[in-house]
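Sample entry (243 residues):
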Amino acid sequence: MDLNGQNAFITGGAIRIGRAISKELSKHGVNVAINYNNSGDQAEQLRQEIIQNGVKVELFKADISDIHGLPELFAKVKQSFGQIDILINNAGIYPRDTLMSLKTDTLDPLFAINLFAPLVLMREFAKQIPDDGHGKIINIVDAKIFKNDPETFMYRLTKVGLWEATKLAAIELAPHITVNAISPGLMMSLAGYEHLNMQAVAERRVPLKILGSPEIVAQNVIHILKQDFMTGNNIILDGGEYI
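Predicted structure, serialized as tokens:
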């Protein structure tokens, strides 16, 4: 795909990995529709930065845990941008629980944001791609899914589900739409854990002894988007942690 002039919609695109992806897309001439919920200040700052790259950028505030409102959200994005050529399902929440400690009131928003919203958005995205058109979907998963560990039990379950959905959608939506995933490993401190020395953590856990970054994820998004003979794949960016 020639990226210049394409239109992308990214969920959770104002902060952390999503922010890096939004910026990298704009550097390659992609117009960017950025979904955010509670990060209005960061979203507006990012919008001002992206404008400097000479592309169209708009912000769409929405709580994507309301999956019934997603068709309307996608319709608003399409009305503003025209056909959406690229969908990046990036938004996610990360509760820390085990099977025995899980709280039932966290299940609905967790599964809605991490799994059900990507499913609905993939459907809405596919519906607007014409029979002679092409589109690309990238789902941000997590390298943790490749090691069985009950820590963050329900989070891992949602991300395993998203990876399985990626493969199923790749088959169903071919040949006009490719569907791939990226599974980041250790990239940055989790919210609330900014005090941790992440480089020291990487030296203990990662064979390459280095810490990843949101920019590495963003660079691999561009790599996938430029590939036309790639679907149902998952790029694992973990420095070898989960070999």
